[in-house]
Design brief:
37% of the residues lie in helices and 13% in strands. By secondary structure, it is of the alpha/beta class. It holds the Pfam family Lipase_GDSL_2.
């Protein structure tokens, strides 16, 4: 698969970075809500001419739906000489709703699904980074939808529970893990045992009409602002450095050599049949 020009090796079939998940992944390239940082664009820029970033986010999907569409995605993205070098997998925010909600997936089944998805990607030759749900800003959600807080199908503590499941599977299968629940809260100075920012029960009644300490990270209590995406981005970059250093951008070859090393004569001789 690799080719050589003037002793410079390159791969004409760029491997891929697959972003797979729900609406938070779907919005990874969005400039909506005044985003000042765009997750998908940042990775596309990091991996220019090194990896093709493939964007496969599906709004509203849970892990149960994800496990059934993934085989087709893998088949499409690995056909011929193509391959997936790295995949991020981010489900759980929808799975963790209350059981009466149609998006709900039980913790036991969620664990099975995350394990299935991870093994399918590993079997396809990809490295994997699993991502656990961020905290849910119950205060903001209650401001957007005033009424009985019990009507909120989401909970920051359930998000933490499902994130812990993701971390368990990541450790079991020795793949990367991004713990967004802790990353978001630690970004605002939270420590274990403190009241949880954004949790309604931890917010005094007189403060429930004010922005929570994590409001700048979540545009509607669930989806990320640019600042929230930046935390996710930095977390993924750190996992790559620590667990998959061979996939750091600077260590991957360009698609075709730099222009100085690729004369027209070299290209005519070596590239015409790519």
């Amino acid at each position: 698969m690799d080719k050589t020009i003037n002793s410079i090796t390159y791969n004409p079939y760029l491997p891929k970075l697959l972003l797979f998940g729900d609406s938070i992944t779907q919005r990874a390239y969005s400039y909506a809500e005044g985003k000042t940082f765009v997750f998908g664009a940042a990775f596309s820029d990091d991996y220019l001419r090194r990896l093709n970033v493939v964007h496969r986010g599906f709004s509203g999907y849970n892990s149960e739906q994800g496990r059934y569409i993934l085989p087709g995605i893998i088949e499409a993205e690995t056909s011929g000489n193509h391959s997936i070098a790295l995949a991020t997998v981010f489900f759980g925010s929808n799975d963790a709703v209350i059981p009466s909600n149609s998006q709900y997936v039980s913790p036991e089944r969620f664990e099975e699904n995350v394990r299935f998805i991870t093994k399918a990607l590993l079997d396809a030759g990809s490295r994997v980074i699993l991502v656990g749900p961020a905290p849910h800003d119950e205060v903001h959600r209650n401001q957007l939808f005033p009424g009985d807080p019990a009507d909120n199908p989401r909970s920051t503590l359930r998000n933490r529970q499902y994130g812990d499941i993701v971390g368990k599977v990541a450790a079991e299968l020795n793949v990367g893990f991004v713990d967004l629940w802790h990353a978001f809260l630690e970004n605002v100075g939270w420590k274990e045992g403190d009241p949880i920012p954004g949790r309604l029960k931890d917010t005094p009644p007189e403060d429930r009409d004010k922005p929570s300490r994590i409001a700048h990270l979540l545009c509607d209590g669930l989806h990320f602002t640019g600042d929230g995406y930046r935390i996710w981005y930095n977390s993924v970059v750190n996992v790559i450095k620590e667990q998959y250093p061979e996939l750091e951008p600077r260590k991957l070859p360009f698609l075709y050599p730099e222009w100085q090393a690729a004369t027209v004569e070299d290209l005519q001789k070596n590239v015409q049949k790519d």
